[in-house]
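User: Just a sanity check before I run the rest of the batch. Below are the structure tokens for the first item. I only need the designed sequence back.
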């Protein structure tokens, strides 16, 4: 976001959805820790690697939600 952008309304409207995605992010952290442990035990399991990648997407969800909301509402 540059200095000229101001989207306070988008930020405020996105807060409830960011909170929900924050909960998903916490779940993603747990899945990531379990998946990382399993991939260290058995690195040949491709499904565990895919699970870790999905968990990383869940961890980044709050940032993506807030960026999307703030980009949709004009200043």
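Assistant: Here's the designed sequence for the first item:
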């Amino acid at each position: 976001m540059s200095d000229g952008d101001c989207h306070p309304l988008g930020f405020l409207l996105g807060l409830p959805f960011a909170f929900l995605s924050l909960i998903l992010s916490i779940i993603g952290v747990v899945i990531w820790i379990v998946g990382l442990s399993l991939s260290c035990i058995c690195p040949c399991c491709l499904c565990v690697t895919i699970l870790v990648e999905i968990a990383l997407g869940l961890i980044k969800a709050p940032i993506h939600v807030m960026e999307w909301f703030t980009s949709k509402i004009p200043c």
